[in-house]
Amino acid sequence: MIIPYQTAQVSFQRKERVGENGENSEVYVVHDEHLDAELVVKQVKTDGFNEEEYLLEAQLLYRSTHPNVVQVLYACKDAQHIYMAMPYYRNGSLHQVAEAQELTCRQLIRYSIHFLSGLNNIHSKGLLHFDIKPDNILISDSDEALLSDFGFAKNMDEDGFATPEATYRYHLPPESAHTRDFNNSADIYQVGLTLYRLLAGLDSLENQWHGFENGAELAVAQRKETYPDLSQLPLHVPKKLKTIIKKCLKFDPNRRYQSVIDLLNDLSSIEDVGLDWRFSIAGNVQRWESISSDGTTLLVEVVHNGQCTAQKKTAGGAFRRKANLCGANLTPERIHEILMSSDW
């Protein structure tokens, strides 16, 4: 005997639209009447066509159970739309967190280890994500980074390759110029771009992109590995972290990290020195501030001519100038040494 599926009713009230909306989708914070809880619902317009294709994202999310992958709570449909319900995280996306305040390298490494653990999980299950960017990494209420949005995700074939229907144009790997089949190195390239943007500026790729007159110029810069411009990374970024990002962004996919585990191992081994600087620019002054758990504050300010002033204060005290770390006409290399110094 065939037992038919039973249809039940879902009831929610839209409260506000959130995040980036796609061509056929919108995302809302809603109040679910039956759960009496705030959720996030992604609404995808189907008009009754290709419903199985649109439901694939919910199915992939459901199969990718992991503490660092956003979970789908339920999926449903009506005559015109597919709906996917997920937890509502008040902290929003990593893009929103970084937009509100520059991340320290310690925060970046910590969040990266979180979402990369989720990425490693989906790779181990034969999935490629194809849309890794700061908007698609959510920050949970316990301040952990979760990989989300599987709208472009695809199952790998037996050789580890898959073909996405689309991807975010600023995060296209360079090999997309001559192929539509990608392996896990495409996701790793997008990880590199994500880390780069979180350090160099969320709009850095787009600004550089518009500096090219045509696609041929961009392709040459990618081949020479001058795009993205790694010299735009701030001076407080540890050399090992720069090396990791550079390896993720290699033009040749075979020279990138070949697994997320290798990338995680390198991130985890970065020395715990100078990771708490928070960078900002005010007029012609570059400013770095580091506040430790005991309230000790370090401050470095550099004007456009290379004049550097370094100061330190303990909790409740006043700033004192660190003469051995100050100077005029300092090179970027020397400023980096000051930021990484143990002579504070």
Summary of the model, kept short:
Residues 12-268 form the Protein kinase domain. The protein is α+β, with helices and mostly antiparallel strands and 344 residues long.
Give a written overview of the molecule.
The chain has 344 residues and is an alpha+beta fold. It folds into three domains: 12-87, Phosphorylase Kinase, domain 1 (2-Layer Sandwich), CATH 3.30.200; 94-268, Transferase(Phosphotransferase) domain 1 (Transferase(Phosphotransferase), domain 1, Orthogonal Bundle); 277-339, no CATH class. The chain contains nine helices and 14 strands. It has helices spanning 51-63, 94-100, 105-124, 184-200, 204-209, 215-224, 239-248, 260-268, 332-339; strands at 12-17, 25-32, 37-45, 74-77, 81-87, 127-128, 137-139, 145-147, 154-155, 277-282, 285-291, 297-303, 308-313, 320-321. A five-stranded antiparallel sheet has the order 1-2-3-5-4, with helices on one face. Strands 10-11-12-13-14 form a five-stranded antiparallel sheet, with no helix packed on it. A two-stranded antiparallel sheet has the order 6-9. One of its GO terms (biological process) is DNA damage response. This is Serine/threonine protein kinase. InterPro entries: Kinase-like_dom_sf (IPR011009), Prot_kinase_dom (IPR000719), Ser/Thr_kinase_AS (IPR008271), Ser_Thr_kinase (IPR053235).
